[in-house]
Amino acid sequence: MDKSFSSASTAEMLTPMASTTEMLAAGPSVWTLDASHTQVGFAVKHLMISNVKGRFAEVSGSVQLDPTKEPKVEISIAAASIITGEGKRDAHLKSADFLHAEQFPELVFRGGRAEGDIGSRFALHGELTIRGVTRPVTLQVTNEGRVIDPWGNDRIGYSATGAINRKDFGLEWNMALETGGVLVGDEVKISIETEIVRQ
């Protein structure tokens, strides 16, 4: 066990640090996404009456913060790591009908312009690439706070939501229903929970 941890209580080690806004004033910094504390989820309408939810199990990325520049965010998601809880559906989503994971192994988000208070709530504008197609995307982001963990790591938590139209990225597959409508909705709702660690 880390001696510095054994000499201080967990409560002391988790005392919130200066806000992100105050931290930015101190100069540029580089942060790495903590994959073990990150969830990238999605929800899509099924049969036009319910939502199928899923997530990606393999995510990596980095964030560069600088008081004189816009934040630089880059996140890579392994297409083949998609999980919805049903094996046949997961295989179909990895196939050429949808993500075509064999030919396009990664989904990539690059963010570079923030509107709002980066220490609280803000809109992060960027570009998302799926199946080799890149489109603009905006995420609504909430800063969940900044702490030093029990092992001395400086962390910031974020949650984010957004939505895309899957057809904008070439994910065209669908089936018409006899009663009207389609099997799979076009809108994909995105939800993200993550922690980033200062390097």
Q: What does this 3D model show about the protein?
A:
With 199 residues, this protein is mainly β. It has a single domain, classed as Lipid/polyisoprenoid-binding, YceI-like (Lipocalin), CATH 2.40.128. The protein has four helices and eleven strands. The chain has helices at residues 3-6, 10-13, 20-24, 87-94; strands at residues 29-33, 39-46, 50-56, 59-65, 72-78, 82-83, 106-116, 121-130, 133-148, 154-165, 184-198. An eight-stranded antiparallel β-barrel has the order 1-4-5-7-8-9-10-11.
Nutshell version of this structure?
With 199 residues, the chain is mainly beta. It contains four helices and eleven strands. It has a single domain, classed as Lipocalin (Beta Barrel).
The CATH superfamily label reads Lipid/polyisoprenoid-binding, YceI-like
Overall outline: elongated
Which structural class best describes the helix and strand composition? mainly beta
Could you say what the CATH topology is called? Answer: Lipocalin
Overall structural domain count: 1
The major β-sheet equals: 8 strands, antiparallel, barrel
Query: What is the helix/strand order?
Result: HHHEEEEEEHEEEEE
Poorly predicted runs: 1-13
**How much of the polypeptide forms β-strand, as a percent range?**
over 45%
Q: So, CATH architecture?
A: Beta Barrel
Major β-sheet strand ordering: 1-4-5-7-8-9-10-11
Q: Indicate the mean pLDDT.
A: 87
User: What's the helix count?
Assistant: 4
Cα gyration radius (Å): 19 Å
Helix content: 10-25%
